[in-house]
## 1
Amino acid sequence: MLARLPERVSVYEVSPRDGLQNEAAPIPLEAKLRLVDALLDTGLSRIELTSFVSPRWVPQLADADELCGRVRRRAEVTFSALCPNAQGFERAKAAGLPEIAVFLSASESHNKKNTNKSIAQSLAAFEDVVPPALAEGMRVRAYVSTVWGCPYEGDVDPRAALDITQSLLSLGCYQVSLGDTIGVGTPRQTAAIVEMFLSEVAVDAIALHFHDTRGTALSNALVGLMLGVRDFDSSVAGLGGCPYAPGAAGNLATEDLVYMLHGMGIETGIDLPRLIDAGRVAEAVLGRKLPGKVHQAGLPRLRS
Ligand code: HMG
Ligand code: MG
């Protein structure tokens, strides 16, 4: 049953972006810098910093350019940011980011609400983002949201998500992160989706992005892991949500994911006590309790 478990997993930290994009109160830039600074000392090697989207659509991340200019850089940590269009790409290039992420949804209604475009229009817009970014030497990741369900349409055909994923990979994206944007997925469904994807794309070409709205994020991640997936998105202390997906709650908490992985003997390169410290910084930055389980409980005495 555990034969396909990977020896190592790559954790892609989304708290400064997915975590902060949905906050009701504006977070000062200095506070965001404190959060990123804490994350930089945990051993995380991939951090999604912000979004180069319209400041009218996501005012919480309107400081993206300044944030990228002021953030501490470490050679071993790759920063990325969301980019929906050519304007976003130009901003990311000016910010000197080595990686960007394009994004769209598997369901038309969510894509329209989130980006004011049809799926076909989003894919067309990415032709003005991905090839120019690759020509600049940047790497491009992609997200397909609402794969497990759409807040406006309900069930989503995973085949549609797979077709979109194939288009994104053909365009030159190195990896597509499949999102359970509203946290409706359950393990058997996750197995069916992941198995369908792995029948057509390489395992390293997909990542899994779970929101823990209904408490199923870690069990879904475990199913993906047991099917051999090696890339997971998560957010320290379980921060997160999508402003255009009503009811979307926090992401899978990075501490919970790492605790489970280390307990299973799977390497991440992350120092869990330092990650827990970073979660405390996140809590201080937001001034409220955050939902992550390990964040709340800490480490048991006999485990490290
Ligand atoms: P639009 O209004 O259709 O854009 O928005 P437009 O091209 O018509 O331009 C309108 C105005 O926006 C213009 O300004 C542009 O300059 C400006 P004006 O002339 O009116 O002053 N604009 C921009 N400004 C700065 N940077 C840009 C940019 N683009 C246009 N890049 C657009 C279309 C895509 C821009 C908008 O819908 C948008 O920004 N959407 C982003 C929404 C978002 O970030 N949602 C959350 C992220 S997705 C998510 O959370 C899911 C995920 O976590 C995975 C999962 O959980 O499943 C990734
Ligand atoms: Mg998300």
Note: The chain has a mean pLDDT of 95.
## 2
Amino acid sequence: MRVLITGGYGFIGSFVAERFYQEGCEVSILDDLSTGNPDHIDFKHHKYILSIEDPNCEELFRNGRFEVVVHLAAQVSVAASVEDPGLDTRTNVLGLTQMLNLSRKYGVRKFIMASSAAVYGMNERFPLTEQEACEPVSPYGISKWVGERYCRKWQELYGLETLCLRFSNVYGPRQQSSGEGGVVSVFLENAMSGKPLPVYGDGTQFRDFIYVRDVADAIFRAASSTLTGIYNLSTGQASSVNDLISCLERLHGPLTVQRKEKRQGDIEKSLLDNRAIRRDLDWAPRYELAEGLALTYEWTAQRQAAADREEAAEEKKKRPPSRFRQWLHKCLPYAENLGLFAITVYLSGAFADSSYEFLDFKLFYILILGMVHGNRQAITAVILSSALFTWEQLNNGRELISLMYDTEYFFQIAIYLFIGLVVGYTVERKLALISSLKSQLLDGAEKYEFLHGVYQETRRVKEELQQQILNNGDSFGKIYAVTKNLESLEPEKILASTVSVVESILKSDSVTIYTVNKYGSYLRLAARSNGEPFDAPKSLKVEEYPFIQEMLTNKQLYVNKRLQPGTPLLAAPVQSGGQVLAVIALHRMPFENFTLYYQNLFKVTVELVSSALSRALSYVEATASQRYLEDTLILKPEVFKEILDSKRLARDRHGVEYALLTPVDSRPGHDFAELSRVISRSLRETDYIGLSPDGKLLLLLSNSTREEADFVARRLSQSGVEMAFVNEELPYVG
Ligand code: NAD
């Protein structure tokens, strides 16, 4: 099952998603993360971070082909709904109507909406059944109540199965302490952090607490059921706030309670009757309050412990390093610098009078410092090296004054300075470049992850489309294969089989085929579906039906967009050589089939059928001399037998009646030519006169009941030809 869960990263949504996933369903989640958290879900699913009001949701429905939508996304805070009713209405009403609309547009089978006990408002006829009056007191309650009306309307208008579940107070792991039903999570959080539990009033007020897994279970069952309408989803058990505190004390130990004044507008009591959903869904809550609370307590304790650990680590990270560490951090490069300088002094002294005298260790010292620490230490190294060089010069007996005029001395100092600056500057630039590359790399990794996600999603959609095309019952190849069944040259057989072909391709049980007379003034019913009865006149006078006139003139598909009664919903002409020979029509179809796709499918089918029909008709024309007795309208026995066989087939398959008559005075050798001329004056184009193998004249009235045949017989009797009905068990027909 493909299911879309709106608000799937929220408290209830995450459990619902998990339940569907565990049952092997393909789960998609639509959530704007306003209160949800994607970390709640750790299994494979399709993730759409979008608001339910966003027009881009259409893309999601177009590609997702969801069977079920579980609509949980909502503005869930009663207080926020009072403060900002606009936001509440946008999310809970406009968001909902967009989800409903897209669901019916893209063929969703079932839409389940999370409603709330808030719709009952202050109604205190406990336990409240679904039939009780709804008197919501908050904008939140009103928007949920309005949402229920919308769901009902969409079911009435479009046949979308909708189910609204009025949740009582849901509790369990992952619940935030704000929003509806938050009393359990507020109490647990306060208990864990040693704060008093706030109780408004004397604590005797009661609620109907239901564990979140019971809610998820009911939603999952409902998705596969045919249940529609409005149901309470609750335990049907009242638990007071004092009961809740006692339960918590059994888990946690003694708790302190802070009594507060009753809050204005609070719905103090709530208890929903759950007998209807128990009966109709075969569902019952499995978690007692004590058990559900113990599980929630355990989860909250674990989360608290994890949060404490994280906070401690964060704290440690945030804590400024001690003064000593700060001082050490600052001084370390200088210490390193001094250490290396000491080594340089030593090496310069040690190699002063040796064959390595030419080596200038001060240059190495500047180079190393510049390369490791950048500019600042390089300049320090330059200063120290210059001092050491000056000291060496003085030590070698040079006067300070003479050094001031020595260009070589200054040249050496300039070299130190140059090396220090160049190396220090270059390294600093390199370090800056490395850090910018590092951040680019991080960005790139994020981009890669995002694009990889998009790529995977695109591949999935592509594969699905491929599968769809391969398996599609409507693919051109399949339609062609079905219409190949029309490889017959007998128009009668083709008419009968065409009904089956059109029924099977368009999945319809209300197909008719009308043949057009040669003047284009009348249409006669030649074949029809035999399923549920539907209204299809036996003959249609073209001038009385503008849609037929239009179709015969334009030779185009007709779509009954205004749903005019007594007119087919779709009709298309069957043409040959620019002339309309017949009309194929569909009289009933589900509303969702009013699509361009379905119209095209109908058109293609009719076009394929047209070629078979026209071939058969040209054959009839070309072989007229082989079909009729010379100079008569009487069909030869073998031709007549074939037509009769196909009429029998049409009657058995599609319930199209026919009648078989014979002139009372019909002996072989009689002047059949004259007789047939008299008879043919009273006949329609779709009736036949033929011979039986033993030479008797037979009259076949297509698409006629016994009464209609009686009427024809009476007319012929007035023309002097007495007719009798033929026993169907004639030996030659078998
Ligand atoms: P929640 O806040 O945990 O979940 C709501 C989810 O919807 C969140 O993930 C949020 O990010 C998402 N969301 C909100 N606005 C959205 C928008 N415009 N577009 C897309 N996503 C959006 O709340 P919850 O308690 O899990 O409630 C779930 C549903 O159940 C809600 O419809 C709520 O009204 C209903 N409900 C809850 C309780 C209860 O006791 N928790 C009782 C009655 C009814």
Note: The longest strand covers residues 579-586.
